[in-house]
Write a structure and sequence with these properties.
Layout (H helix, E strand, L loop, with lengths): L10 H4 L9 E2 L7 H22 L9 E8 L3 E8 L3 H4 L5 H13 L5 E8 L7 H13 L4 H14 L4 E8 L8 E8 L8 E12 L2 E13 L1
Parallel strand pairs: 1-2, 3-4
Antiparallel strand pairs: 2-3, 5-6, 5-8, 7-8
Helix pairs in contact: 2-4, 5-6
Length: about 220
């Protein structure tokens, strides 16, 4: 039986072991796998909530591109890739220790050591998560979605990317009927596995309801 529908796949999962690596590295018995996955989710949420509360400016951009988690028997290593780490650390050098204590308390770690490091990204607006946060902030401030997307595309051009596609779905600009709008600039070869494509989906709450933002960024071809 023929299926005429388009088969959608997450661009990151599609490229694993070619141009994309795992954001979590650990081994577990099959019965403990779901527990480890939930633990990762809690760690990421805890870090994001802390960063949101303690950022020096209220720009709406947390600046977290990704959080990598590496687990060993007695140690959990967390690497936070941030676009603007100064906004979090400036004025309070003990913030990382405070964040470590927070995560340890939240997850009730007793026998495992936790180590958190922050690495700075050179071109933050070349990462879809940071760009999605920027667009979300604009939409919350009732900026027209076209203006927000065009500004985001301008920012990615400064980060030397080869192409970008942005999609927004929901009650855009407060219209009664939900719709999907998208804009593409440059090349975004989604079917080419060796093309390094960064992707994120982001949910933003506005006064009209929830909007979904999806961003694909074509970084380079290997």
């Amino acid at each position: 039986m023929k299926n005429p529908m388009g088969q959608k796949i997450n661009p990151l999962g599609f490229r694993l072991a070619t141009t994309q690596g795992h954001h979590s590295l650990w081994f577990a018995q099959p019965k403990n796998y779901s527990k480890g996955l939930q633990e990762d989710q809690k760690i990421r949420e805890c870090i994001k909530n802390y960063v949101q509360k303690n950022m020096r400016i209220s720009s709406g951009v947390e600046g977290i591109a990704r959080i990598e988690i590496q687990k060993r028997i007695d140690l959990i290593q967390i690497i936070i890739h941030m676009g603007f780490p100064k906004l979090l650390v400036e004025g309070k050098p003990r913030r990382i220790e405070e964040l470590q204590m927070n995560v340890q308390k939240e997850l009730n770690y007793v026998n495992r050591k936790l180590n958190i490091t922050i690495t700075r990204i050179t071109k933050p607006y070349g990462h879809p998560n940071i760009l999605a946060e920027f667009i979300a902030g604009q939409l919350r401030n009732r900026v027209s979605f076209r203006k927000a997307i065009k500004k985001a595309i301008e920012l990615t051009e400064q980060a030397d990317t080869k192409g970008i596609q942005v999609q927004i779905a929901g009650r855009i600009d407060g219209k009664e009927i939900a719709r999907v709008e998208w804009i593409r600039e440059g090349r975004v070869p989604l079917q080419t596995i060796r093309a390094k494509i960064d992707y994120c989906s982001y949910r933003v709450r506005t006064i009209y309801g929830v909007l979904g933002i999806k961003i694909w960024i074509f970084v380079d071809e290997e």
